Amino acid sequence: MTPETLRTLLGGVPENGWFAEAEARVRADPDAIGQLFARAGRMLGRRQLPDHPAWTAGQAGRVLLLLAIAAEQREVRVAELYWRGDPAERLAVLHALEHLTLGEAGVPLIEDALRTNDKRLVAAALGPCAALLDAAVWRQGVVKCVFMEVPLSVVDRLGERADQPLAEMLGGLARERAAAGRRMPADALALLNRRSLAKGFKAEEG
Amino acid sequence: MRVFDPHIHMTSRTTDDYRRMAAAGVRSVVEPAFWLGQPRTNPGSFGDYFDSLLGWEPYRASQYGVRHHATLALNPKEANDPRCKGVLDLLPHYLEKDGVVAVGEIGYDSMTPAEDEAFAAQLDLAREFGLPALVHTPHRDKAAGTRRTLDVVAASGIEPGRVAVDHLNEVTVAAVKDSGCWTGFSIYPETKMSPPRMVSILQEYGIERVLVNSAADWGHSDPLLTVATGQAMLDAGFSADDVDRVLWRNPIEFYAQSGRLDLSELPEPEATFAGSSVKRGGS
């Protein structure tokens, strides 16, 4: 979701006036964001946005408030808001990361989200912000999704990033599941089959 | 029967409890921050605990279709340890969070000067953050503790209708009722209050401004005693609407004063109740 789209969606909610004022305050004084970031959830609304069920106005507002922090202050402020945030606030940080251009400074936050047992945070950590993760951490995240029954459709650029080590991890899991008489989720099996086919094709070519 | 348990320490309970509660009609709970049995020795321990009450525990509850909110505070018992005083400085940050619907449990344990100070300071925080207050009354010297509690509440200037005074019994209910504060009752297997005694109190004092909770925690307690009390009310001739008022609408009326109570429909619980993120080995 681009900031422009979020701004358009937010323009349609009745509490948009509160947001405009909050955003101006953050632009003028980054210290103001602590309180406003927490309040945005209830001030802007916690119900799903029409046509965008994954988003609430509150979450859209939070992402835009993060983008209103002056660039040179972002690294410190965003990390602080993540570590001191509740799950919804942490989700907003993860969703904003791809637009915040923090680079490596975002990695510890994403890795923390991947260590949680909260499906929402794990899913967000594998969204576009996961571009910052190295391959080993990213693969662990994908396999964790399979364990947590998080659909693999949440993983950004899955087809592009899925590699042989990931296929081997999934293959191992599939054998464990088969031994236990338990099923693999269909999306994981499909990914595994695609990788196996690609490998077979390459072997034939070679 | 739909039930809102306005005081229960789910952190100390198992997923089996969540399953049984949801099956019996408990759809919403409020978990007050309290003493964990083992003393904490620094504010950081409280910060992690508050994070858990706003993060992991509501998530765990949601797996069973139960809505979870919290009340946060430095509890009276640990207010006596000077190493924990810094918790009062953490609170303004946490009291802004969406999941917080009151300041609590505050009040008295042994009625010491340190408890006086923490109690008054946190009633001020409740006013400052527009939150109701959940007040614990002491186990020992309860009648005197309750009187002193009401004096402190009156002196603080907080509106009595925004204060719930909890763990009441036959001896302490009248004074709290007269003060205009909400009357809270913790139904326990053997001690504080039982379902039949609760029914007698409701018959004598009415069903307005009454909160019935299980206060279930790590001690001998039962998260289904709210439901048992509803059944005892029906058996004694109260209507289903009276039960709904006491066990559902009253706690909503009290905590909705925070402006933060969110009872919008929860997503459907997981098809298998033990969703893998709650199962061990999920990660």
In total, the number of domains of chain B comes to 1
Q: What is the radius of gyration of chain B?
A: 18 Å
Number of helices of chain A: 12
Count of DSSP strands of chain A: 2
What is the highest CATH level, the class of chain B? Answer: Alpha Beta
Spatial ordering of strands, largest sheet of chain A: 1-2
Question: Domains counted in the coordinates of chain A: how many?
Answer: 1
Strand order of the largest sheet of chain B: 1-2-3-4-5-6-7-8
Percent of residues in helices of chain A comes to 55-70%
In this structure, how is the largest beta sheet of chain A organized? 2 strands, antiparallel
Query: What is the name of the CATH superfamily of chain B?
Result: Metal-dependent hydrolases
Order of helices and strands of chain B: EHEHHEHEHEHEHEHEHH
Topology pattern of chain A, helix = H, strand = E: HHHEEHHHHHHHHH
Q: Separation of termini of chain A?
A: 41 Å
Describe what you observe in this structure:
The complex is a heterodimer of chains A (206) and B (283). Chain A is mainly alpha-helical and 206 residues long. Chain A has one domain (3-151). Chain A contains twelve helices and two strands; from the N terminus they run H-H-H-E-E-H-H-H-H-H-H-H-H-H. Chain A has helices spanning 3-11, 16-28, 33-44, 57-67, 71-83, 87-100, 107-115, 119-125, 135-148, 158-161, 164-180, 186-205, and strands spanning 48-49, 52-56. In chain A, helix 1 (3-11) crosses helix 4 (57-67), helix 4 packs across helix 6 (87-100) and helix 5 runs antiparallel to helix 6. The N and C termini of chain A lie far apart (41 Å). With 283 residues, chain B is an alpha/beta fold. Chain B has one domain: Alpha-Beta Barrel (TIM Barrel), CATH 3.20.20.140. Chain B contains ten helices and eight strands. In chain B, helix 8 packs across helix 9 and helix 9 crosses helix 10 (240-255). The radius of gyration of chain B is 18 Å and the shape is globular. Chain B starts with a strand and ends in a 28-residue tail after the last helix. Classes of the chains: A mainly alpha (206), B alpha/beta (283). Chain A binds chain B through residues 34-35, 38-39, 41-42, 46-47, 84, 86-88, 115, 117-120, 144, 147-149, and chain B through 51, 54-56, 58-59, 93, 96-99, 259-260, 262, 264, 275-278, 281-283. Chain A: This is Sugar phosphate isomerase. Chain A: It comes from Winogradskya consettensis. Chain A: InterPro entries: EboA_dom. Chain B: This is TatD family hydrolase. Chain B: Keywords: Hydrolase, Metal-binding.
